[in-house]
Amino acid sequence: MKQTKKFKRILIANRGEIALRVMRSCKEMGIKTIAVYSDADREAQHVKMADFAYYIGEAPSSKSYLNSDKIIKAALELEADAIHPGYGFLSENAEFAQKATDAGIVFIGPSPESIRVMGDKLEAKAAVMGYNIPLVPGTAESITDVALAKQKAAEAGYPVLIKASAGGGGKGMRIVENEEEFEDQMERAISEAKSAFGNGAVFIEKYITSPKHIEFQIMGDQHGNIVHFFERECSIQRRHQKVIEEAPSAVLTDEIREEMGKCAVDVARSCNYYGAGTVEFIVDEELNYFFLEMNTRLQVEHPVTELITGFDLVKEQIKVAQGEALSFSQENISKRGHSIELRVYAEDPQNNFLPDTGSLNTYKRPQGVGVRVDDGYEQGMPIPIFYDPMISKLITYGKDREEAIERMLRAIEEYNISGVKTTLPFGSFVLKHENFRGGGFTTKFVEQFFEASLLDTPLNDIEKEAAAVLIHLSQQNISNNQGVEEKVSNKRVSKWKERLK
Ligand code: ADP
């Protein structure tokens, strides 16, 4: 039986909102916290909140937050019992987990072996074989023979995806529409995988044209117990990356939810998992679901699960790492109400979501019942260009989906940020959209429905004039103006009218 050992000090190998998030749970558990920081973060909130802080290097993450040796040195010097990696940076780095363990420091996460297996898409598929887990039709092994690959693609049915086994973060995927382009795309996929990931292994998956992305939160202890905390719906994505998440999903039936939950627990069991993890599925229009991959860490979007289940997932992670058995079983986990998260990025939704740079000249958080803001900033602070441009996570809770949505719209209105462009107006666009309201939206939402001109961003004087002219022209059917009405749809005209009010 695994010995339990209460931690006295935890080093948080991260920055920004997630570092603060982890520290808060540590404080509630009476555990002292150690921050690490780079040159760009000398004044950062996570450094101020921690009991101790350790400088680890220059601003680029390769010289600081990704420098495993410096982080382990900090942990040893400041006598940390454990390291919490947060998400991103070193959180899914099996070598780092191993190094920490070898140095006598507990890595708050799964074993290095679980991280390694689930970090490779093909190894993950191999691990779950024998557990009756539905996989996307295609090949479950690396394939190099083009003729054979072509045959497999035809069997799966076009369009297909060629995926790099070592890919991640939405990179290393190619869509092939038909047999004619197959050979060319496969050669490109292999050479890209070699240069980007140092591993040319690729495989084929049927491309599910309009899927939903639904994931399950799981948690295991070191005594063989594994449970799930229901699902999160994460289909609103731009560049294959999530922007809005919610729990529970508006479309799953209780029956499918239970089946998928069991499946997620089995995926975790297949790699002897312990700690917090997420099992991702894609779900087609008929609610057939397929295992996609497992993320072996805490996710950005974990708060929506916390709000509907009442658990503090970071505390549970820490207890598991201390060697404790889960103090609850599946039957003790229930959900109540609905929660939505909007990732507030310093990005310009008018300009293809390009990261925007600058300082938070005004920064006033929304407040009130059912609103949680996880952030790492204060008014006046610059958004460092070196890291992820996420300013905060705005999370709302309501007794049902409708209330969570209305509350989010209210909170977006109350959130006052100036100095950088943000995804707040994009959030209100999505939350007001009938397709989102209906719940049937897919990962194609942004491509299908989003148009920058539909955003409710404040108009400047020139834009106001232009909008007035546009409306005027669209109302006149003068001969030299033919075509304007075609270009300016009625819907858009009424939107401009509303914005000019
Ligand atoms: P990564 O490791 O890069 O995140 P994933 O395999 O998790 O890669 O896929 C990322 C996203 O790509 C998914 O959320 C989904 O939107 C899309 N995707 C992946 N596989 C498929 C597929 N077979 N069919 C359709 N979309 C897919």
Q: Which descriptors apply to this entry?
A:
5-stranded parallel β-sheet, globular, alpha+beta, D-amino Acid Aminotransferase, Chain A, domain 1, Rossmann fold, 4 domains, Dna Ligase, domain 1, 8-stranded antiparallel β-sheet, binds adenosine-5'-diphosphate
Give the strand order, joined by hyphens, for the main sheet: 13-12-9-10-11-14-19-18
Indicate how many domains the architecture comprises: 4
Question: What is the number of beta strands?
Answer: 20
Q: Biggest sheet: strands, sense, closure?
A: 8 strands, antiparallel
Which molecules are bound in this entry?
adenosine-5'-diphosphate
Q: What's the tally of helices? A: 18
Shape: globular
Integer-rounded radius of gyration: 24 Å
Quaternary state of the chains: single chain
If you average the pLDDT, what whole number results? 93
Kindly report the name of the CATH homologous superfamily of the largest domain: ATP-grasp fold, B domain
From the helix content, strand content and strand pairing, which structural class follows? alpha+beta
Q: In percent terms, what proportion of residues is strand? A: 15-25%
> What is the CA-CA span between the terminal residues?
69 Å
- The CATH class of the largest domain: Alpha Beta
Instruction: Tell me roughly what share of residues is in helical segments.
Output: 25-40%
User: Which architecture of the largest domain does the CATH hierarchy give at level 2?
Assistant: 2-Layer Sandwich
CATH topology of the largest domain: D-amino Acid Aminotransferase, Chain A, domain 1
Give unreliable regions as ranges: none
